Amino acid sequence: MKRAPALSVGLALAAVASLALACTSAAGTTPRHGPVGPVPAGLERFYGQHLAWGGCSAFAKTPSDRKTYADPGLQCAYLSVPLDYANLSGRVIKVGLLRRPASDPAHRVGSLVINPGGPGASGMSNAASLADAITDNDVGRRFDFVGFDPRGVGSSEPQVVCRNAEVRDRERLMNLNVDTSPDGVAKTEAQEKADDEGCVRGTGKDVLANIGTREVVRDMDVMRSALGDEKLTYLGYSYGTRIGTSYAETFPKNVRAMILDGAVDPAQDSAAQLVDQGRGFQKAFDAFAAWCAGRADCALGQDKSQAVSKFQALVRPLINQPVGVSDGRKLSYTDATIGTVQALYLSDLWPMLNRGLQELAQSRGDVLMRLADNYYGRSQDGTYSTEMDVFQAVLCVDNPPIKDPNVARNIDAQYRKVAPFLDTGQPPSAALDNCAFWPVPPTGAPHHPQTPGLPTTMVISTTQDPATPYQAGVNLAHDLNARLLTFDSTQHTAFLQGNSCVDHAGITYLTSLKLPAEGTRCEPAS
């Protein structure tokens, strides 16, 4: 999951599947095959649709996608699905798909469908970026590697759009939720309401009402059949584990294999998830501080016990006096803390975070701004991806809203307690977030999943995951009766990220359905 500090929502990704016998022609199109596997009544035309695979350049929505999608080894297509599954004669929308066909067709297992999380992250972009990494292993050899942009995301049509680039840049300077006075709360809530109104204008209530995980898993089952797969093989990271869990609940007998990495616990409410996430980021910050203290150039000094107070001394002045960035923008308190959170997702980013804090001590903000831009999906040309708009929209329909200011204040107080490095020094805020004013009702709620008929699947949980705590993976594995693999490390998600122990266990399971032994633990490479 991706969240900004405290009640201000905002997943840094995660990382960062489907069996069948669909043949692929030389032209790259999947021949008409009719529906494959079980088909819900009335959906035959969607389940049996023809996917016209072609080049991916026209699907690119960001500058980075324009580079990666130019790879001639990638193929893209649109999947048609009903906007509202309760109204099959109504509006039809399109879901973007990207695949790299299996390099060893003679030993092909089927399709491996992936989702990187968010909600709001592009599965197409993720699949394109991982395509080279899987070329020389059995994932690339034996599976069509398929990423999809869930409804409302990236290349899918229509997109969820709530704010333009100018509004986003302006909001980042406002430091919402920092001023906790009555006037500050009123200002924050006014902006939240304005953002919600922007979502209605830019997207439409009908789309917002049908944007949640409940609908995405229905789209995935249509996709399974259209790909020619009788059963689904799925890889989900972070929020992608919620998609996978929901699919397993809705279509348990349609699952061949499923890896859920960096789990979201579906039985936990959004307030408890937020506080647990704050606790996870504090642990990651403490690990960063311990690493940094061993360096002569550590921006927080050599005494790790003083790291929180040193960090606060660096970032709190930005509340009233942002510092300059070379492109003319100003680094706000919100940007500095968001940039720090982005770097805490992966220890490989710790040297960059240290450089950013060194810069900040000299009243410069370029490095921390680059980290914050990455989190928010802002490109160098000033444009933004739609990830953060989708993130808000999906959270608000997937979870019941918090509408009591006293509850909001209590959650903020708990968050500051477990994540003191993000404490602004102000009293806890009673401000309600966007979901309290959301224009359509929620379609989901916390619950323990029930999955009769589901084969044994695999959950990967990392002991010091800052965004999706280890215990969430333990709980999900218990609820799904899945096999748990533990990765002893400090990072968010692990599979296909270079650890041979994790990758071997996951690839063996996907290709042969052989699960790792009970209690398997993997260590980082020394």
Description:
The structure is a single chain. This protein is α/β, with parallel strands linked by helices and 526 residues long. It has a domain at 28-159 and 214-267 and 447-522: Alpha/Beta hydrolase fold, catalytic domain (Rossmann fold, 3-Layer(aba) Sandwich). 39% of the residues lie in helices and 12% in strands. Strands 1, 2, 3, 4, 5, 6, 7, 10, 11 and 12 form a ten-stranded mixed β-sheet that branches. Strands 8-9 form a two-stranded antiparallel ribbon. It is globular and about 65 Å long.
Write a concise synopsis of the structure shown.
This protein is 39% helix and 12% strand.
Structural class by secondary-structure content: alpha/beta
In CATH terms, the superfamily of the domain at 28-159 and 214-267 and 447-522 is Alpha/Beta hydrolase fold, catalytic domain
By CATH, the topology of the domain at 28-159 and 214-267 and 447-522 is: Rossmann fold
Q: Can you count the beta strands? A: 12
Q: Strand share of the residues?
A: 5-15%
What percentage of residues falls in helices of 4 or more residues? 25-40%
CATH architecture term of the domain at 28-159 and 214-267 and 447-522? 3-Layer(aba) Sandwich
Give the number of helices: 18
